[in-house]
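Database export, one record per block. Field names are fixed; values are copied verbatim from the stored entry.
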Amino acid sequence: MVYPVKTDILPLLRNLVEGIRLYAEANGVALLFESDPDSIEMEYHPQKLLPDLTQILCQVITYTPQDDTVTIQAGMLDDGKQPLLQIKIFNTSTDLTGFLSIRHGLTNKVVMNRIEPQGTSFDIHLPLETISAPQIPNKSSSNSDYEFVPEFYKKLRKQLHTYFSSIKNLEKVAETRSKRDGIFLKKLNAILMANLDKEGFDASELATALALSRSQLYRKLKPLVGFSPAHYIRYVRLQKAKEFLEKGEGNIGDVAFNVGFVSQSHFTRAFKEQFGFNPSHITRQQES
């Protein structure tokens, strides 16, 4: 069994930020850490706290436009009942309230708030004295707090980059043009993956998520992929649908719905237009 310790938590948070800084730089995003006061002593165990913070940080970085900043702040808060640690992760240029994957599967309660005019914060409030530690088998309590950061970081990176191969190829081609183009297309694809099942997610919403106008989005995307934003969104939806069908992950109707098509007949027509055959061709091959 591992137990929480009572000590200053800020060194752990600083090390977490440093562990993710290169990931942020690779996404064209600055990463800052701020704290007030300079020391916050509390009972905690890193295995209770680090997974949630790592997930939120990596996802917010992924969906934050290039040249923006993501900040993690640590401070004290008193809710009238007990002193609390407040950890706030935020950007100031993009509304991320519609990205449900950021908070999916978290252990701690996270409050999401819109920052006007265009930003989002994710707040965690933790009591200074009563954080309980989970039972983790085969782990010694003598292990360093910080050795868990790389493990969680690798897991989140793998989760955040599960794009399909054809899109990966487009990203590689973009990187040959310039590092900025590669980062831009990776961010754009990550946003598309997070909104794939939303029928109404269109070029306007994609532009907003990237902090661009529609004309700016068109000028940046068309040279990289050869498609207009609207065409590229449909291309990505259908590529992912083909992947789902080839892996047997649902029938045609389910797959159509999961990639943002309400009408199965509309999906079938679009699928045939892009690939030259009906989606039923794939399902029949799997049945034979």
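Remark 1: The chain has two domains: 5-160, 165-287.
Remark 2: The first helix runs from residue 10 to 26.
End of record.
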